[in-house]
Automatic annotation (TrEMBL):
<dbReference type="Pfam" id="PF00676">
    <property type="entry name" value="E1_dh"/>
</dbReference>
<dbReference type="GO" id="GO:0030976">
    <property type="term" value="F:thiamine pyrophosphate binding"/>
</dbReference>
<dbReference type="Pfam" id="PF02779">
    <property type="entry name" value="Transket_pyr"/>
</dbReference>
<keyword id="KW-0786">Thiamine pyrophosphate</keyword>
<keyword id="KW-0809">Transit peptide</keyword>
<protein>
    <submittedName>
        <fullName>Putative 2-oxoglutarate dehydrogenase E1 component DHKTD1-like protein</fullName>
    </submittedName>
</protein>
<dbReference type="InterPro" id="IPR001017">
    <property type="entry name" value="DH_E1"/>
</dbReference>
<feature type="domain" description="Transketolase-like pyrimidine-binding">
    <location>
        <begin position="531"/>
        <end position="734"/>
    </location>
</feature>
<dbReference type="InterPro" id="IPR029061">
    <property type="entry name" value="THDP-binding"/>
</dbReference>
<dbReference type="InterPro" id="IPR042179">
    <property type="entry name" value="KGD_C_sf"/>
</dbReference>
<dbReference type="Pfam" id="PF16870">
    <property type="entry name" value="OxoGdeHyase_C"/>
</dbReference>
<dbReference type="GO" id="GO:0016624">
    <property type="term" value="F:oxidoreductase activity, acting on the aldehyde or oxo group of donors, disulfide as acceptor"/>
</dbReference>
<dbReference type="InterPro" id="IPR031717">
    <property type="entry name" value="ODO-1/KGD_C"/>
</dbReference>
<dbReference type="InterPro" id="IPR011603">
    <property type="entry name" value="2oxoglutarate_DH_E1"/>
</dbReference>
<keyword id="KW-0560">Oxidoreductase</keyword>
<comment type="similarity">
    <text>Belongs to the alpha-ketoglutarate dehydrogenase family.</text>
</comment>
<dbReference type="InterPro" id="IPR005475">
    <property type="entry name" value="Transketolase-like_Pyr-bd"/>
</dbReference>
Length: 881
């Protein structure tokens, strides 16, 4: 009988407590190790609800309070159901989410799944059993053939393979997902490649034998990467004649660094498919691209880039409609004794709560539960377009790697591991198959691996990376630096410039911009000989858009520009509406400029932009640092991805990095972009004539037209290289830093070296000064003031690849010069000095004299008077001695 006097607030409080705290009672640890859980919550839940009401048979109407598919039930039945649902081998956290609609959806979805036993079809169970066995046998095979290889096996986390298989299948068939992009660390990577992504085992075995995974004849510069960084891109044919494209990205050993790259590639693919139009930052009704981020428990808690990526996940221009996160929770860091030494939070996943993301903890010993929560995660992401995390609680069978002995620091954990009688795969498979069936499956699988092993030393790998949208891209193999026609019609450039300051009717433009932007630009366009840096940039952006190439510029406050010079986007002063004039240049414009003002992050944002750049060669992707030295926060991205990606993985990137650089008395932090670091990372040869076969270009342009040509060159060339630009600060408005419209016209190009424009005869030149960037203008001004006529000032605009041929021509031209100088603003242990000095010695056999600041441990002084004194001394010593 229904008790109409029943206190429904009490019923709701019971339900709420189990939904909120039930995960504390869940049996999610396959090792059953002692954990310091929330004892107070456990005690409260057990004493005040389960024990107190376990005999209460009062019936109540569920009224949507409980989603057990019953219109009514008793209190004790409800508690039994809630305990089974929230305190079993899965712990679900979602009550921290602010949105009540999301909470109710998760509660209803999870409770309906658990209102009866989760019965899978026989064929699905057989598939699970076979995948688990093959995952285990792959590890066994490799351990037998290569006992000293660190393979970072899946053993102890075999259920990971069930997550991936179900994710591919369910997302494609139930939600029409077309692309899955995966970033993951070492653990289980080889198993995923071999068992699901059809990576040829013979190529993997070649790698284990110390042979190359690439065809070195066709790619002689490739150096490859370690076994645990192998990658694959493949179309998987699933049921119902549906395909899904899966990309497992290559990764460095810097844990979690791959995360923003995954999201950036997803965003880049969306840009190419025009899923995120420029007037709309994201669209959750179309989520065919699914980013998957796989983490380790300790790195997920400890690496700051995790927080940066999460904070970026719902920001306009960075949203990818949510990622599905899988934490492969080994319950241990490297060899850290106990999780309590690895984090301060209760769960490793607690950082997810800052973006209201659900967290699901599942016992790795229960593969069917893994399948169940994977489906829930996919459904949630596709429904709400948000991040969700699965915490797969498992263990590592062999420690950090197969050659490590973890018992030094974790004796209790490994006592529990070594006492396990059967593996997850064996336990589950024995419930599904007979021993005869298991032996038959094993024989077939093992035979196939043996065949692959036999042909591994003779197999020839292929360099299958330039396909699809990359099919028109080549690997450069020329012996000299190539010159590319990057000019554009002057008539069209003027039209682009005018469109860039065409303000919509009724738009309330900032009063300062009417004069400093609109009137100034129109005047420059009419005079045609006063093109400044910002206008040249607009020329580059607009011309590429006209040619059908998307352009994206990202960074902190890039819309207006750090130095208030760009204003590629304008903001209505009354409504706050944002307008990007270049996106309305003509009817049916297909390409767009995306101006992405970023969060105050460097590492995650740079990684994101790199990910965008490797997705398509037809989009120009730019990251601008607020000041040049801000790249420091993203050093891992430069070291492991941008500078080395092509050499390790044959992945080309046309990413442009703008680093405002120049000594202007601002002090140590924001004077230098540390150009010496980028030059040190160049693989440009000192002895041989340099060519386009370098890992990236490092430039220090000194004119607007040079900058224009550099940006256009990134797209015009038939190959892609990252471009490092030591970009200006003071030159943005310097009266002498201007270009004539003729320098942008068709038939013009970037000049690696700009010779002096002398009126005197070249045989009268006694000294040749080589320099780069802004420093030229200070030298030239002093030379003019002092009426010095026997000194030529030559600008090296591109330092890598080093323009040997152009410099040689200059040196020959000034054959009578008695002294050749390298002059720079930076200190002697910084800047380009050491880079150019070695090359001048090697190629020209001349003694290059250094003039610049003395060595120092900081980039610049912080005392204004001292800076001025240093500056005057460098200029005078360069030109007078």
């Amino acid at each position: 009988m229904i008790n109409n006097q029943l206190n429904y607030s009490l019923i709701y409080s019971i339900i709420k407590e189990f939904r909120e705290k039930g995960h504390y009672l869940a049996s999610i640890d396959p090792l059953h190790l002692p954990h310091s859980k929330d004892i107070e919550s456990k005690t409260f839940l057990l004493q005040n609800y389960e024990n107190r009401f376990k005999e209460n048979k009062t019936v109540f109407k569920t009224l949507g309070l409980l989603y057990n598919k019953k219109e009514e039930c008793s209190v004790n039945e409800a508690i039994t159901f809630l305990k089974k649902t929230y305190c079993g081998t899965v712990g679900v956290e979602f009550m921290h989410i602010d949105d009540i609609g999301e909470r109710e959806w998760l509660a209803s979805k999870w409770e309906q799944i658990n209102c009866s036993d989760y019965l899978l079809p026989v064929h699905t169970k057989e598939k699970i059993a076979q995948m688990l066995l093959e995952c285990q046998w792959f590890d066994n095979f490799v351990a037998t053939k290569y006992p000293t290889v660190k393979r970072y096996a899946c053993e102890g986390a075999e259920s990971m393979i069930i997550f991936f298989d179900e994710l591919f299948t369910h997302s494609c068939i139930s939600h029409n997902v077309t692309d899955v992009i995966i970033g993951m660390p070492h653990r289980g990577r080889l198993n995923l490649l071999a068992c699901l992504l059809k990576f040829p085992p013979n190529i993997m075995f070649r790698k284990m034998q110390g042979l190359s995974e690439f065809d070195l004849i066709k790619a002689p510069r490739i150096v490859g990467d370690v076994l645990s960084h192998l990658y694959k891109s493949i179309d998987l044919n699933l049921a119902e004649k549906k395909n899904i494209h899966v990309s497992l990205l290559p990764n460095p050993s810097h844990l979690e660094a791959i995360n923003p790259v995954v999201c950036g590639k997803a965003r880049g693919k969306a840009m190419t498919k025009n899923l995120y139009p420029y007037k709309q930052s994201n669209s959750n009704d179309k989520l065919p691209i699914l980013p998957i981020q796989v983490h380790g428990d300790a790195s997920f808690s400890g690496q700051g880039i995790v927080m940066e990526c999460l904070e970026m996940s719902n920001v306009p221009h960075y949203s990818v409609g949510g990622s599905i996160h899988l934490v492969v929770n080994n319950q241990i860091g490297y060899t850290t004794p106990g999780y309590y030494n690895g984090r301060s939070s209760h769960y490793c996943s607690d950082v997810m709560k800052m973006i209201d993301a659900p967290c699901i903890h599942v016992n790795g010993d229960h593969p069917e539960d893994v399948l169940k929560v994977t489906r829930l995660a996919v459904d949630y992401r596709q429904k709400f377009g948000k991040d969700i995390l699965i915490d797969l609680v498992c263990f590592r069978q062999w420690g950090h790697n197969e050659l490590d002995d973890p018992t030094f620091t974790n004796p209790l954990m490994y006592k529990a591991i070594h006492s396990r009688e059967r593996t997850v795969a064996e336990k589950y498979a024995n419930e599904i198959f007979s021993q005869v069936e298991i032996d038959s499956i094993k024989q077939k699988f093992w035979t196939n691996l043996n065949q692959e092993f036999k042909k591994s030393s003779e197999s020839k790998p292929s360099n299958e990376n330039l396909k699809g949208v990359w099919s028109h891209i080549i690997h450069p193999s020329n012996e000299h630096i190539t010159v590319w026609d990057t000019g554009y019609s002057s008539e069209q450039l003027i039209a682009i410039g005018r469109k860039s300051v065409e303000i919509p009717s009724g738009f309330n433009l900032h009063k300062t911009l009417n004069k400093s932007l609109v009137n100034d630009r129109l005047k420059r366009l009419s005079e045609q000989n006063q093109i400044d840096w910002a206008t040249a940039e607009i020329f580059a952006f607009g011309s590429l858009l006209c040619e059908g190439h998307n352009v994206r510029i990202s960074g902190q406050d890039v819309g207006r520009g750090t130095f208030n010079q760009r204003h590629a986007m304008i903001v209505d002063q009354e409504s706050g509406e944002i307008n990007i004039p270049l996106n309305d240049m003509f009817e049916n414009q297909s390409a767009f400029l995306e101006v992405a003002n970023s969060i105050l992050s460097e590492e995650a944002v740079v990684g994101f932009e790199y990910g965008m750049s490797i997705d398509s060669p037809n989009n120009l992707i730019i990251w601008e640092a607020q000041f040049g030295d801000f790249f420091n926060g993203a050093q891992i991205m430069f070291d492991t991805f941008i500078s080395a990606g092509e050499l390790k993985w044959l992945l080309q990137s046309g990413l442009v990095i703008l680093l405002p650089h120049g000594y202007d008395g601002a002090g140590p932090e924001h004077s230098s972009c540390r150009i010496e670091r980028f030059l040190q990372m160049c693989d440009s040869s000192v002895k041989n004539v340099d060519s386009d076969m370098i890992n990236w270009s490092v430039t220090h342009p000194s004119t607007p037209s040079q900058y224009f040509h550099l940006l256009r060159r990134q797209i015009v060339r038939n190959y892609r290289k990252p471009l490092i630009v030591a970009s200006p600060k003071l030159l943005l408005r310097h009266p002498q830093c201007i270009s004539n419209l003729s320098e942008f016209e068709e038939g013009t190009h970037f000049k690696p070296v700009i010779d002096d424009r002398l009126t005197a005869k070249t045989d009268a030149i006694q000294k040749v000064v080589f320099c780069s960037g802004k420093h030229y203008y200070a030298l030239n001004a002093y030379r003019t003031e002092q009426n010095i006529t026997d000194v030529a000032i030559v600008r090296i605009e591109e330092l890598c690849p080093f323009p040997v041929k152009d410099i040689s021509a200059v040196i020959s031209k000034y054959a009578n010069a008695k002294k050749i100088i390298w002059s720079q603003e930076e200190h002697e242990n910084m800047g380009a000095w050491s880079f150019v000095n070695d090359r001048f010695k090697s190629h020209f056999g001349c003694e290059l004299n250094y003039v610049g600041r003395a060595p120092l441990g900081t980039p610049a002084v912080g005392i204004g008077s001292l800076h001025k004194k240093e500056h005057q001394l460098v200029i005078a010593q360069t030109l007078e001695n």
